[in-house]
Structure formats: structure tokens, C-alpha cells
Hints:
80% helix
Amino acid sequence: MPRVSQDQLDARRHEILAAARSCFARFGYEGATVRRLEDATGLSRGAIFHHFRDKDSLFLAVAEDDAAAMVQTVADNGLVQVMRDLLDRAGSGDTAGWLGSQLEVSRRLRTDPAFAERWAARSAAIAEATRERLQRQREAGVLRDDIAVEVLTQFLELAYDGMVLHLATGRPPGELSRVLDLVEEAVRRA
């Protein structure tokens, strides 16, 4: 039997995550049965769970993957850019997977203490990346200096949460691009 390369294993894992993200978004955690995950991925349960211990580990990997991408975007371009990217996806009709996993994470944070405990480090990483980015902007003279970085971090997190809720309830994006301009102006030095 030929050996499978690490690149092939990584590619398969990425394919499983992408298909599972859509399945979790469409059916929620409980509704994303193993059978539906098999249908979504086109793989057998054995092939899926060769890469992930169980459904909970698969869901956490999807959420972690999304959080890691978010941390990188925040570190490089700020939390407002994450919101702009989400808005761009909404305009193209491509929010279901990502938004669905965000909503499922929110639900599980409220209802599953073990998940909330496991998720705490991921959430802290996003907040820390936001604080670090804001601190760098303050040091560069771009960020307003009359409000503590912690308060600005919370302000941006609230704007992000509000945007997720707005899109999750099916409301149209409307003028959210201009709202994001306003959010960005609120944290910049005059």
C-alpha cells in the first residue's frame, strides 16, 4: 500500500473541514449527524474520524480554523477588516459556512460548559490580537489616545458581534459598509 504524504493528509483534512463547516452551518451541531457529515464530505465515517476523534472534535476544529483565520486577519489588518470581509461575503451570498459556525459557537458557549472552557483560549487569542493591533496603531500615532485600548477593543468586539447578529437574522447588509467606515473613524485619531 502506498504511503500517503503529509501534504495529502493536510489536503484531505482541509476538505473535511470545509464540508463539515457547511454541514454544521446548515443543520447546526445536533442536526449535523454523522450520516450528513458523510454526505457532505463524500467520505465514510472511518475516513472522517481518521482525521478527527469524534464529531465534537471536528466541530471544534472547524471553529478553531475560523478563529485562527480571524486572528491572522486581525493581526495583519484589524478587526474592522474581519467585519469588511464578512460584509463582502454577505454581498456575494457566501456567509453561510462561516456565519453558521460562529452562531453555533455562540450557542454552545451558552449551553455547553465544557465547550466554553475549551473555547476560552481561542476567544482570548482574538481579543489579544485586537489589543496588540490597536496598541501598535496607537504607537504609530494612528489611533486616538483619549480612550484606553481595552475600551476600544471592547467597542470593536461589540461592533463585530452586532454585525454577526445583524447578518444572522437575515437582515440585508444595506449601508453596513458606511457603518464600518464610521466604526473605523471612531477609533482613529482625528
